[in-house]
Amino acid sequence: MPGEDTDGELARRAAAGEAAAFAALAERHYDRVYALAWRWCGARAEAQDIAQDTMVKMATAMSAFRNDCAFATWAYRIAYTTAVDHIRARRKIVALEPARMSALVDGADGDTPEDEMMGQDLWRVVRALPDQQRDAVLLVYAQDLSHGEAAALMGCSEKTVSWHLHEARKRLKNQLEPAR
User: Fold this and answer.
1) CA angle (63 as vertex; 38, 61 as ends), nearest 5
2) What is the DSSP letter of 100?
């Protein structure tokens, strides 16, 4: 949109102490931060806590943003770290019976209550994967990031992300196959 400030410009102004610039950044990125948080924890209240914690961390770290990467990448790295820390602190992930699940679906946008429930159950199983596999699946499939973007957030190589995804798919296939 013409006349709209870029993330980089808003970040520069926010780092200089302009509250309105940070508010614009927070408004622009809150929904994706919340979606990332929801995928990691699966509960609305916890996702809101994670998203709010992320916004507070972003506000206090604005002076550290150096514009050497996209603001969104920097913001989602903070959200990712906050979500992972939250999960590690809580460790109350419970895997549900996955017999009726057969594919990764976006549970937040289900067309019917059944679709929504199936998606929520599936993401619960995904959240029960080993940490690195869970993170790779959530970043690539739930957040629609490329392997390279996921690698940057996870602090590893693209090949490592691909390997984690491969291993996660094998685990999910074994868990989702009906018992013979």
Assistant:
1) 30
2) T
